[in-house]
Amino acid sequence: MTKSLYGKTADGKEVFSFTIKNESGAEIELLSYGATLNKISVPDRNGAFADVLVGFDTMEGQLSCTDSQGRTVGRVANRISGNGITIDGKNYQITKNIDGKFTLHGNHEYENAVWDYEILGDDSVKFSYFSADGNEGFPSNLQNEVTFTFTDKNEVKIHYDCRPDGKTPINVTNHSYFNLGGYASGDILSHEMQIFAKYFTPMDEDSIPTGEIRSVENTPFDFRIPKKIGRDVSAPYEQLIIGRGYDHNFCLENYTGALREFAMVYDPESGRKMTCYTDLPGVQFYIGNYMDGSQIGKGKLPLTHRSGFCLETQYYPNALNNPDFIQNLFDENHPFVSDTVYRFSAE
């Protein structure tokens, strides 16, 4: 574990980086700004290391970030419709940060904050952030902790522990963009993706779920058997047109609240493989459809179209406005506690 000053925010707050290297030489980098997972360097089939996260390597880049690369996102990740949320008959209007129409990622509150930190050992850092009652319109105070651990098995473990003092929705996730060929290797369309989901949630023109839970069978959204991400992405299917590609919630199988495998991704070129685990009911699969090269990322390279994919573990988006969805309402007796694991290997 090494700690160093990464930079300062516009208002002068210090941001620290934490690098954890395991016994094989693989490493990750974490930032206190946004509780960010900023780097994962792991070997390919020939033992060559590469950073498999798309993002930024300077403080200036982090401050210019518009697509949440690597950030911890909350209090409620993903979208909430423009009517806000209603709890016990009381409506709360949440900040509408997308064209004044609806909420995305809690107006980026968590990802733009400098989190407190505690080094727990050679392989683990805990970040903490207090979100006050009323922030962005959400009710109740909320104490958030996110702990990152990097093991000798090349596992990135993310543990969330978010404790409110009253009823409030919580849907905290990590928004990393992965490219198993390395961040400089081009698009991810040749990656082979498998998602253990029989259903997904279609969305409207604002990318907000309609409330329908649709079978993936005979659609481009069927990833139950591994296939290249790019195989069906250009199919003339309504949901792909709305999302400009994949940007949808998948309803993961075997949800019991226990940790289980939910996805596998393989890059045939490098041989890198990522196996993914969560205890949550859903995952947002997104493939960087809105990255257009206008932002400059790591290595002074532009962040180009579909150069990374996201697997954001979550409750279904806009759940409180869809009673048929698994609800993400928590309180002082029922905190949000969750684990996500990304394990890397090569073959």
Oligomer: single chain
Would you tell me the overall average pLDDT?
Answer: 98
Gap from first CA to last CA = 28 Å
Q: Which blocks of ≥5 consecutive residues have pLDDT under 50?
A: none
Strand order of the largest sheet: 12-13-14-15-29-25-24-19-22
Kindly estimate the percentage of residues that lie in beta strands according to DSSP.
35-45%
What share of residues is helical? under 10%
Structural class estimated from helices and strands: mainly beta
Query: Main sheet, how many strands, which sense, barrel?
Result: 9 strands, antiparallel
- SS field, number of helical segments: 2
Tell me the total number of β-strands. 29
Query: What is the rounded Rg?
Result: 19 Å
- Silhouette: globular
Task: Explain the overall architecture.
The structure is a single chain. By secondary structure, the chain is mainly β. It is built from two helices and 29 strands. It has helices spanning 59-64, 238-243; strands spanning 2-8, 14-21, 27-31, 36-43, 49-51, 53-54, 72-73, 79-80, 85-87, 90-92, 103-104, 116-121, 124-131, 142-150, 155-164, 168-169, 173-174, 177-178, 192-195, 197-201, 214-215, 227-228, 247-252, 260-266, 272-278, 282-286, 310-314, 329-330, 336-346. The protein has a nine-stranded antiparallel sheet, with no helix packed on it. It has a five-stranded antiparallel sheet with strand order 1-2-3-4-5, with no helix packed on it. A five-stranded antiparallel sheet has the order 21-20-23-26-27, with no helix packed on it. A hairpin with a 5-residue loop joins strand 1 (2-8) and strand 2 (14-21). The longest helix is centred in the N-terminal third of the chain and has 6 residues, at 59-64. The chain is globular and about 60 Å long. The two termini are 28 Å apart. 44% of the residues are buried.
